[in-house]
Every structure is written in structure tokens, then in C-alpha cells.
Design a protein that fits this description.
This protein is mainly alpha-helical and 134 residues long. The chain has 6 helices and no strands. The longest helix has 22 residues. It is globular and about 50 Å long.
Length: 134
């Protein structure tokens, strides 16, 4: 099912969630699922991946700016809107998350670990600078 043209300006968070979830569940591929959220609903990768990571636990990981501090090669993905540019790099991002040593953990658990690691590193830097913005 290719993405359906939807006037994003007319959509809001009150748009029919049942219709959205039906579109996602009827999709035949993960790329199509991501495309629906990005192209049709105007979400960027961080929000779209968060939604899909809760619906498809084994297929999606949350693309978070904090996690990108651990994987800096993927930072530019969050600002892209072209699914054909996002998808191959997002697959690489997923593989990077999966490749973390803790193979016994799920993608969701790895998401939380990476977020926590990034938060801890940021906090350490803030403490070293005495929370100065300089």
C-alpha cells in the first residue's frame, strides 16, 4: 500500500487514530509504515520511530537525539523528510543499536540503556562545568 496523499495542514493530533492505525497495520512493509507517518502525517523520524517501536517491538528502535550522541553518524536523519533518503540510513541505525554487546536485550531495552547512557554523559559534563552554559 503506497502512502496516501493527505493534506498535512488539515490534520491534527485529533485526526482519527483508528484510521491511522488501520493504515499502519494494513501496510505490507516496515518502510511503508514509516512512510505513512512521515509523508502522510508530517511526523519526523524521532516521533514516527517512537510510535512504531511500540507497535512493532522487534522491528523499530527509537531515533532519539540523545542516542545519536552515541552514534553521531546518524545525527542528520532527524531533519530529513524524504523516506527514500531516511529508510536505508534508519536501517543502518537499527543495526547499530542491535550490535550493542548486550545481545540478550530487546530493542526497547537497548533504547532505554542508550538513552540512560547519553543522559549520564550529559549530566557528567554539566557537573564538570558547574552547569554553566559557557
Amino acid at each position: 500500500m503506497p502512502a496516501v496523499n493527505v493534506d498535512v495542514k488539515r490534520l491534527s493530533f485529533s485526526a482519527d487514530p483508528k484510521y491511522l492505525t488501520q493504515l499502519i497495520f494494513k501496510s505490507v512493509s516496515d518502510k511503508e509504515r514509516l512512510e505513512i507517518l512521515i509523508k502522510n502525517y508530517g511526523f519526523r523520524l524521532p516521533i514516527a520511530s517512537a510510535i512504531l517501536s511500540f507497535l512493532y517491538l522487534d522491528n523499530f528502535t527509537i531515533y532519539d537525539y540523545r542516542v545519536c550522541k552515541v552514534f553521531p553518524d546518524f545525527i542528520p536523519l532527524g531533519n530529513l523528510s524524504d523516506i527514500d533518503k531516511i529508510w536505508p540510513r534508519y536501517l543502518e541505525f537499527i543495526e547499530a543499536v542491535k550490535s550493542i554487546d548486550e545481545q540478550q536485550y530487546t530493542l526497547q531495552e537497548k533504547d532505554r540503556m542508550l538513552w540512560g547512557y547519553s543522559f549520564r554523559e550529559s549530566l557528567k559534563k554539566d557537573i564538570e562545568k558547574c552547569f554553566s552554559k559557557k
